Amino acid sequence: MSGLFEYIKMAVQNIRANKGRSFLTMLGIIIGIASVIAIVSIGEGTKNQMNSEISDIGGGQIYISCSSEAMSEDEWILPEDVEAVRALDNVEGVSISESYDGETVTGKGTFSLMVTAEGPDAKMVNNASMKYGNYFGEQELEEVKNVCVISDSDAKRLFGTDDVVGMSLDITCYDMTKSFRIMGVTTQKENGTFVSYTYEGMPATVSIPYTAMDELVGNMDYFYGMTVQADTRADSQALADQIIHLLEKRHQSAGEEYFQVQNFQDVMKTMNQMLGMVTAFISFVAGISLLVGGIGVMNIMLVSVTERTREIGIRKSLGAKTSSIMLQFLAEAAILTVIGGIIGILLGIAAAHGICSVISAGMGMEISPGITLSVILTATLFSCAVGVFFGIYPARKAAKLSPIEALRRN
Prior knowledge:
The protein is an alpha+beta fold. The protein is built from 14 helices and eleven strands. It has helices at 2-17, 19-58, 68-72, 79-86, 122-126, 138-142, 152-159, 210-217, 236-251, 264-307, 309-317, 322-363, 373-399, 403-408; strands at 61-66, 91-95, 97-106, 109-118, 130-133, 147-151, 168-173, 176-186, 204-209, 225-230, 259-263. The strands form two sheets. Strands 3, 4, 5, 6, 7, 8 and 9 form a seven-stranded mixed β-sheet that branches. Helix 2 (19-58) runs antiparallel to helix 10 (264-307).
């Protein structure tokens, strides 16, 4: 063990004696490690932000819709189907969502509406946060009450204030007009980095019970699709299969593929895979600089062997073993890459924070670098491996020098 420390001490002394050359040797390692860590951290941060936003709007949700074959056979999701799915284990709520174009006139003028007919679990499925009043539920659907829910931003557009609970809103759809009492105001969600809830010129959105929509425009005795809020701890794929089996049994359509599934977990998984592939490719390109840096280490170590040929000859003539000479040069190569790796890690972390800050400030994004211990450890081990790998050839060359031939050189 004491011999190893002696070799390390000698390697450090040699590196300090050639500071400029050593730094230039480490530069390729520094750039490579810093680039890989910065890119992977930014990629992980982007993925985490995207997953967080998607989870906020669709975490644990399964969307069931009718296929084109079902529609051609006039097979639809019925209210009774919705209630049957609600009764399944691991199902926390089910809601339908059918939207119609509408119009309303208030003291502020005439406004276009997107009137959305929803089911009894709409508040849960929409992950709605109430600012005033309450969301409608089973009672309002059963009693076919003309009530509605509106966001605070749309309330301000229509009425000039968001405290509108109890006010009436006249909704016109298909030349039919009915008055709806506003029973709840939700907090408008802010657009995220990857998910947008609003766009310029978007009509005001009003949610009403689907039974009230049936009274207004009809055609609400069957649905094209439904959204199931599942227990996030449950196997969403198994639950989706169970729901499809239930619907096929109720419609006696086994094997007809009348119902199709869109699982938000599958969407997130696909998007993560795509983003992971892009990050891996860019990291691979950045990692090429590590190869260049490793070649630089090997080159400078070959120069060092040439410069110290007489020293090697003297040591071998005094009885130094071949393994000792080899270990000395390997230690020097490893130390160069470890120091370069540590500097690269620190620069990579700083670069990741800096780039994320610039993106957040310049593009309105909220991205934090996803720096993990595994990435740092991998980068450290990789830099050490580069040093050892590219240091083997120069070290073997030094170790195999003949003492007589080495002493003859000046």
